[in-house]
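QA checklist item 7 of 12: single-chain prediction sanity check.
[x] sequence parsed
[x] length recorded as 99
[x] structure emitted
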Amino acid sequence: MPARQRSAMSGTAAAASVEEESVKVVLLGDTGVGKSSLVLRFVNDEFKPYTESTIGASFMSRTLEITAAELEERENEEEEDGNGADERMVEQLNRKRGT
């Protein structure tokens, strides 16, 4: 993920350093399972119970701002959750596939 840094300017002095990251998410799944509804809810915070099927591809974007405190809290949660469950699940899937 490419990261860029810029300074948020307040008058003539830099108030804070802001790090920007761009992330792309691709959502795949069977027809009619709600992929578009899920993304629409995340991007626009709206839900339509009946939507036309998406033919081909659809693109949406959303900008999130996360404070340093929120980022630190999430990193701490990840450390606490680091019990190896993710790795065990991947190992089990690989064993089932025979890889």
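[x] summary fact logged: The radius of gyration is 20 Å.
[ ] second reviewer sign-off
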